[in-house]
Design brief:
Helices cover 19% and strands 30% of the residues. The protein is built from two helices and eight strands; from the N terminus they run E-H-E-E-E-E-H-E-E-E. The protein has a four-stranded mixed sheet, with helices on one face. It is globular.
């Protein structure tokens, strides 16, 4: 048996708004923009994607799963770009680390890692 990783599900109060934010932040394409589910992928046929689904409850604690992104060249430029799009800094006790933890517009944590060393 083989499995293909299809997507990561992200609970959201407003799936379309959060999905649009992530699509812009990652420069991904929208493959489903229905009101209750909003899916984005790197390209229309490339998986895994992110599927944003409506949930009634608000986020109340730290996510048990989060996304990490590694920039090609400039860590701080990527952090600044996310902040300009509306992300916020998150204090998760990572002072002095090579990554920066941010929050998306609904408060989901994600990290911008340091540039990979050759």
């Amino acid at each position: 048996m083989t499995l293909e990783w299809e997507q990561v599900i992200v609970d959201a109060a407003d799936p379309a708004a959060l999905g649009r934010w992530w699509a812009e932040a990652l420069d991904w394409v929208v493959v489903d923009d229905s009101p209750e589910e909003y899916e984005i992928r790197p390209t229309p046929d490339q998986v895994p994607g992110l599927l944003f689904v409506r949930v009634p409850e608000a986020k109340s604690v730290k996510n048990r799963l989060h996304l990490d992104f590694r920039p090609d060249e400039d860590h701080q430029a990527e952090v600044d770009r996310f902040l300009a799009l509306g992300a916020r800094h998150a204090d998760m006790g990572q002072d002095g680390q090579s990554w920066t933890t941010l929050l998306d517009p609904e408060g989901n944590e994600f990290c911008v890692l340091g540039v990979r060393k050759s």
